[in-house]
Amino acid sequence: MPTSYLRPVRLRRAVPSLLVLGLALVGAGACGTDAPEQATASDGPSPVDASSAPPTRQSLSETDVPHSARSTGTPDDEGPALTWYRDISPMVERHCGSCHVEGGQGTGDFTDPDTVSAFSPAMINSVHARRMPPPASDPECREYIGADRWVAPPDFTERLQAWVDDGAPLGSPEDHVPVPPIAMRLDNPDLEVRLPAPYRPTFSDPANPGNEYRCFVVEHGQDETFYIRGMAPVIDREDLVHHIVLFKARRDDVPAHDDWNAGYDCIDMTFFVGSGGVGDLLSGDSGMISAWAPGSQAVHFADDAGIRMDPDHVFIMQMHYFDGSAGNPQPDLSGYEFITADSARPNIIMAPFGPTGFRIPAGAENHTEAFSITMPLNLHLHGVMPHMHYLGQSYHMWFTERGNEQCVVSSDAYDFDNQLTYMFEEPIRIRAGSEIGFRCTWNNSPSNPNLVHDPPVEVRYGERTDEEMCFGFALISIN
């Protein structure tokens, strides 16, 4: 086996420069979902964004309209008719271009006006049914980087229908307003890691047709402690890789498995913590550090912030493969690239906020559990990834500011296959003595199409996907 598959690559180090806040994923953004774009900020890190969409949602997407296009005419005014180049193409490009393009995971090439016109009834139906775009946090709770790509305007379906009803006019190519590209790669990485060997998904789990969750242990190959200042995935097979969740762990804490090159099945995502449990997460010693899905952006931590990696740390890459290759998947050799530094201040950690030990009664259509804690220290909150399993319906995270509740992230809908990390333009300052809370609602009744046990049974807290969790995984720095 070529040694290049086994060793990380240390790239030529670039001269350190001021880093601005960017967006990383896992998220998870995903196909059938829409994608955030590169953004900057002045004060603090901005990692992650992730998301994913199941095969039934992979086929259709929806769109949004940049502000520049909204001013040119709507279905209700008497201005010029909507045209492809001026109005429809920019909104499709912004919100569907991550997946619904030639070679993408989404069905159809939405750069083609005839395809969009033909798909418009299904697109409109998917938007009305709230399948597309997959659920995301409400930006009216709090703005986050990429909200303009993840959340469609309320008049989207009206605009698309009006354009189709008018004969789908093309208009003039000169009217097209290009949508800024998403910066999904780093400009100056100095460390790159890849899967231990090329892996060909088997999609052999009958309970999850067309999907495979596989975890791989990846060595970073560094002999000294270093800090991650920026990160982005290196996607080898865009037709297969649906999302990536990146963890760090002590080498001795890695789940036992026979073949590191082949990885191990991890659909249950049980590896959240190391041997020290939640304490490891709070110390930043182990746990999830990033998530990515199509459309997510590279992460840049501003100023001197970073995530610590010691010589005995390893990365664990959870790969979600989706069979978009007509049953003939090719080997994948994806990885991650990083900007690193010898020191960082502050140190970014991902801490879980949420209840444990709960039980969800069989048949309960709206069961809610909540958690809150009074913070003993000042901290900055840089981003949040809400996490539940298949019964999850809604979530809400808040903190108190001088007795007044402030919304952090909130959504009245949730999709296990489209988990995002919401990064803020500027870190939220939370003072000592403030309360932080996280609340989840589940549907454990036959009305839930994602019901795991049918008929319903009591579901308890746990890490397996047939159990439930309720966490806001928060990227924080302690002042």
Key terms:
479 residues, alpha+beta, Jelly Rolls, 3 domains, six-stranded antiparallel β-sheet, five-stranded antiparallel β-sheet, 11% helix, globular, disordered N terminus
Describe the protein's architecture and organization.
This protein has helices at 67-70, 84-96, 113-128, 147-150, 156-165, 278-283; strands at residues 9-10, 191-194, 211-218, 226-234, 241-250, 264-265, 287-292, 299-300, 307-309, 313-322, 335-341, 349-353, 359-360, 367-374, 379-387, 392-401, 404-411, 422-430, 435-442, 459-460, 471-478. With 479 residues, it is of the alpha+beta class. The protein has 3 domains: 3-21 and 184-344, Jelly Rolls, CATH 2.60.120; 55-175, no CATH class; 350-478, Jelly Rolls (Sandwich), CATH 2.60.120.230. The strands form 5 sheets. Strands 1, 2, 4, 8, 9 and 11 form a 6-stranded antiparallel sheet that branches. It has a 5-stranded antiparallel sheet with strand order 6-3-10-5-7, with no helix packed on it. The chain is globular.
Pattern of helices and strands: EHHHHHEEEEEHEEEEEEEEEEEEEEE
* Rg: 22 Å
Shape: globular
Largest sheet: 6 strands, antiparallel
Using the 3D structure, state the CATH architecture of the largest domain: Sandwich
Explain briefly what this protein structure is.
The protein is α+β, with helices and mostly antiparallel strands.
Present the secondary structure layout.
Elements: E1 9-10, H1 67-70, H2 84-96, H3 113-128, H4 147-150, H5 156-165, E2 191-194, E3 211-218, E4 226-234, E5 241-250, E6 264-265, H6 278-283, E7 287-292, E8 299-300, E9 307-309, E10 313-322, E11 335-341, E12 349-353, E13 359-360, E14 367-374, E15 379-387, E16 392-401, E17 404-411, E18 422-430, E19 435-442, E20 459-460, E21 471-478
Antiparallel strand pairs: 1-2, 2-11, 3-6, 3-10, 4-8, 4-9, 4-11, 5-7, 5-10, 12-21, 13-20, 14-19, 15-18, 15-21, 16-17, 16-19
Helix pairs in contact: 3-5
